[in-house]
Amino acid sequence: MSKHGRILVAMSGGLDSTVAAVMLREEGYEVVGVTMKTWDYASSGGSKKETGCCSLDSINDARSIAVKHGIHHMILDIRDEFGDFVIDNFVEEYLAGRTPNPCVLCNTHIKWEALLKRANQLDCEFMATGHYAQVREENNRFVVSKGLDEHKDQSYVLWGLTQKSLERTRFPLGKFHKTAIRQMALDMGYEALVQKSESYEICFVPDNDYRGFLKRRVNGLEEKVEGGNFVDKAGKILGKHHGYPFYTIGQRKGLEIAVGEPLYVLEIKPESNTVVLGKEEELNRKGMWVRGLNLGKYAQLNQSLEAVTKIRYKNAGTHSIISQEGNRMKVIFNDDVKGIAPGQSAVFYEGDDVIGGGWIEQSFELN
Questions:
Q1: b/e per residue, 290-309, with b = 16+ CB within 10 A?
Q2: Which residues of the chain fall below pLDDT 70?
Q3: Which of 9, 194, 211, 290 could disulfide-link 358, Cβ–Cβ 3.0 to 4.6 Å?
Q4: How far is CA 134 from CA 176, 276, 328, in A?
Q5: Which neighbouring-strand residues pair with 136?
Q6: CA angle 265-269-271, nearest 5°?
Q7: Looking at residue 80, what is its pLDDT?
Q8: Is residue 271 located within the same domain as residue 355?
Q9: This prediction's pTM
């Protein structure tokens, strides 16, 4: 009988999940390792060799690590669920003129649900991942907070996890810096894992060419959207673009238009296939609406609250006042914020704690 019971650990074959699994086993848990197969990149028509957490090499690495440490290991095939939900949403969001956040969607609706379902089948009380974040119980609520290593903190991508999921989730790396985790891996004899480069690509677009992916995924996409106009805020035509789904708010490079000064994408209008351009300062906004809320620290906000709001993963965050109206959050920033992109995640922090998050619906300027 194990000291702490059974725990299901997501093992990708990478450094972080490996150390997490071995760490938990040494703490006295009976560890069951699961590697998820979410995507076959070859089916997308891309030319780059399959890499990352879904590649055969990564799956084999995870299995060999599990065997070495006496960890039972299995492969969980969730390609159907992943494709139907995450990839369809990815395409639909770009066609709607928004910039999707597939990793958040996958964590919330696919990976955790699949892992908890398998944990139930295997009588595992808990599940764990190699994310750099922390979770604790406070006032009968389960609260996600930042990992100790601020440079590796991944709390931003976990805002969508439900209370039911968080109750059974453990993040063993949350109290460590990445340098300490690397040293642990070296001490375990995994020098190759330490030297292995980390991937920040979307798993089903490993060549980072999302435009090419969209073209391959949507038959006749170019014919449907090509030949649209770049316009300024007054509606004056500035030139032709290659199709509105191929641009994102705040983009400057790749516009292929010259007017004597740098221009940025201010707005995308799919209904008229137009992309609005303007100067950098015209990207500034004082507020935004956020939809599809999931609150963690509080069940709901009954009054306005001071918070730091992040609009991108690597965004430092901006002090703001947030107020809940139904399942939307109104956010008023203390300072101007550039490049607020509909479709991206907005995450609200109180200190290191995640209050909650949602999907950016639209930004606005104050009168």
A1: beebebbbeeebeeebebbb
A2: 1-2, 41-54, 199-200
A3: 290
A4: 10, 41, 26
A5: 143
A6: 160
A7: 85
A8: no
A9: 0.92
Active site residue 106: yes
Q: What is the Cα 73 distance to its own chain's centre?
A: 26
Q: Is residue 212 part of a domain?
A: no
Do the beta carbons of residue 331 and residue 288 sit within 8 Å?
Answer: yes
54 included as an active-site residue: no
Q: Report the alpha-carbon distance of residue 357 to residue 186 in Å, rounded.
A: 36
AA identity, residue 271: E
Residues contacting 359, CB < 8 A, separation 6+: 101, 290, 291, 292, 342, 343, 344, 345, 346
Question: What is the CATH number for 263?
Answer: 2.30.30
Considering the domain architecture, whether residues 188 and 257 belong to the same structural domain is answered as: no
Give the pLDDT of residue 278.
Answer: 96
pLDDT of residue 45: 52
Residues in the chain: 367
Considering the domain architecture, whether residues 277 and 289 belong to the same structural domain is answered as: no
Which structural domain, as residue segments, surrounds residue 247?
225-282
108 with 190, same domain: the answer is: yes
Q: How far apart are CA 310 and CA 156, in angstroms?
A: 8
Question: Are 126 and 265 members of one domain?
Answer: no
249 and 312 fall within a common domain: no
Residues 6+ apart with CB under 8 A from 191: 185
pLDDT score recorded for residue 109: 83
The residue from 244, 262, 282 where one domain ends is: 282
Burial class (CB in 10 A: 0-12, 13-18, 19+), 361: middle
Measured CA to CA in angstroms, residue 335 lies from 182, 236, 321, 365 at distances of 38, 30, 11, 12
158-193 core/surface letters (b: 16 or more CB in 10 A; e: else): bbbbeeebbebbbbbbbebbbeebbebbeebebeeb
H/E stretch holding 95 reads helix 88-95
Q: Please state, in angstroms and rounded to a whole number, the distance separating the CA atoms of residues 87 and 6.
A: 32
Question: Of the residues 53, 54, 106, 124, which is catalytic?
Answer: 106
Number of domains in the chain: 3
Residue 137 has, within 13 A of its CA and on its CB side, a CA count of 8
Which residues, 6+ apart, have CB-to-CB distance to 291 below 8 Å?
327, 328, 358, 359, 361
One domain, residues 338 and 292: yes
Which residues, in sequence order, are bridge partners of residue 145? 134, 353
Residue 185 tokens, joined:
């891996």
Query: Is residue 203 in some structural domain?
Result: no
